[in-house]
């Protein structure tokens, strides 16, 4: 019997109608389904309620219903137990939650039949000194680590080191250190390059740098990046993890970023490549903004 964790975003799945459909389908397939407290109460299935650790630890795989944000949140927990994740997209543009709602049952049948592949996605680890606990705080992420100014702060000064070699001072709104998976997110919006998620690299991208020559830097997964917070008097500096978790930093704090030994295991049920998905999403963005340019090269 398959043990499956079902993690819906209750703001995306209004009334949990999609969750209820999948729960009913999995039950008929003789699968054991586990839910967190809130969705279990909404669906009147307290018998399926488990705590977060139990769901990630004891499930054969996790089904995430929502968008990429929901997937990112689940990935940090699932990675600790090496539990694979299948993302069902209920949002708009899903690079990670790539199964569309209309084909969710078809994709689930493939997983139950063993007709799927698991992609291992690189994650990052950030370490920073925790003054409250007088020790080191370690955080993992799938997409990116951001070090940015607060909403009312001025430009902040950041010193970048790679393998303890000083690179440069970056006066900017902040800086993003991204995995290949995260390169199509905040990094791309800040003008950074797109990286193939099957590669093991990191990209450092400044946000609105106060310098004409400051550009993204791509480094290997074996490199260690250090970001030292400068003397930013009166400025609020924040460390963010996948854009979802925030921690305040102080002057002269050093954030060390490297490849994590944890990985996200992403279940794939289609033969679409990363570039197929990328092209599809870009075409979707074009149609949303009313772009009608050419999407292919024609012979002259």
UniProtKB/TrEMBL annotation:
Its EC number is 2.7.1.23. This is NAD kinase. Its main location: cytoplasm. The gene is nadK. It catalyses: NAD(+) + ATP = ADP + NADP(+) + H(+). SUPFAM superfamilies: NAD kinase/diacylglycerol kinase-like. The lineage of its organism: Bacteria, Bacillati, Bacillota, Clostridia, Lachnospirales. One of its GO terms (molecular function) is kinase activity. It comes from Defluviitalea saccharophila. Belongs to the NAD kinase family. Its cofactor is a divalent metal cation. The keyword Ligase does not apply. The active site is at 68 (proton acceptor).
């Amino acid at each position: 019997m398959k043990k499956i964790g079902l993690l819906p975003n209750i703001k995306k799945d209004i009334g949990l109608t999609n969750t209820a459909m999948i729960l009913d389908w999995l039950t008929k397939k003789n699968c054991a389904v586990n839910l967190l407290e809130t969705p279990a109460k909404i669906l009147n299935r307290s018998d399926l309620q488990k705590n977060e650790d139990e769901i990630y630890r004891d499930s054969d795989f996790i089904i995430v219903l929502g968008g990429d944000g929901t997937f990112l949140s689940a990935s940090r927990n699932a990675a600790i137990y090496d539990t694979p994740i299948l993302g069902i997209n209920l949002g708009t543009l899903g690079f990670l939650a790539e199964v569309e709602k209309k084909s969710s049952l078809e994709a689930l049948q493939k997983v139950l039949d063993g007709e799927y592949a698991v992609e291992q996605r690189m994650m990052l680890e950030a370490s920073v000194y925790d003054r409250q606990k007088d020790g080191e705080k370690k955080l993992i992420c799938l997409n990116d680590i951001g070090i940015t100014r607060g909403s009312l702060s001025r430009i902040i000064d950041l010193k970048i080191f790679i393998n303890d070699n000083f690179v440069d001072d970056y006066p900017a709104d902040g800086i993003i250190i991204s995995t290949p998976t995260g390169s199509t997110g905040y990094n791309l919006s800040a003008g950074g390059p797109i990286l193939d998620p099957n590669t093991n690299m990191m990209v450092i991208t400044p946000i609105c740098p106060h310098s004409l020559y400051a550009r993204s830097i791509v480094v290997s997964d074996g490199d260690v990046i250090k970001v030292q917070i400068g003397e930013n008097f009166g400025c609020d500096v924040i460390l963010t993890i996948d854009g979802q978790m925030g921690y305040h930093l102080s002057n002269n704090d050093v954030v060390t970023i490297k490849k994590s030994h944890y990985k996200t295991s992403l279940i794939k049920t289609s033969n679409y490549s990363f570039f197929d998905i990328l092209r599809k999403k870009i075409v979707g963005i074009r149609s949303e903004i009313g772009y009608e340019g050419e999407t292919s090269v024609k012979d002259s």
